[in-house]
Design goal:
Length: 239
Amino acid sequence: MDHDLSKFYSGLKELQISLSEEQIEQFLDFYEMLIEKNKVMNLTAITEFEEVIEKHFLDSLSLVKAVTPGNLRVLDLGTGAGFPGIPLKIAFPGLKVVLMDSLNKRILFLEEVTEKLHLEGITAIHGRAEEMARKKEYRENFDLCVSRAVANLASLSEYCIPFVRKGGLFVSYKSGDVEDELKQSQKAVKLLGGSVRDVVKFQLPNTDMGRSLVVVEKVRATPRSYPRKAGTPGKEPLR
């Protein structure tokens, strides 16, 4: 199927990302797999090609507005259908990526995707953040943790910050209006060893959708008591 790639190319140009033909093909293959699997499994409500390009692919890649993706060890927590982890891995093959999700069906899909796209240095892991963050092979072991999950920032901080090494970053993808969440998450971020370094606001290429990247730097080790047991960070965010 021929797709109009003009919006993808103009968005990439705006983000100052250049991709090879092979990388573009990987994005197209990923799109086809996503749509096919979505017929039997709820992966995304967004299925139109241009919308997937804008709201999934370019949105995932917008991380470059906040972080320079070099040879970083990256955790994509609550990855869902693979966002932002898979687009980042396709565009920046030097990244070492771990995709983590609590639903095993999604993990099986992501394993199919990484195999079909011949992506190396990327693994998909089934598990809950509250439990995985207690394992020494993951705790404070990543240069960067990213998440597009919809949880509030206080809860997300408790899920994500424990995975980040001291000096590393946690970047939360949020909608344009993030001020209230920032205020409400101040205590949580500090308690977990983080400090908000930046909030990068922008509009998604070709759209009027406001987005924010909240950049939290890990300045101290996370106390051993966090994250709390499964379910608690979501139900009772640290305030």
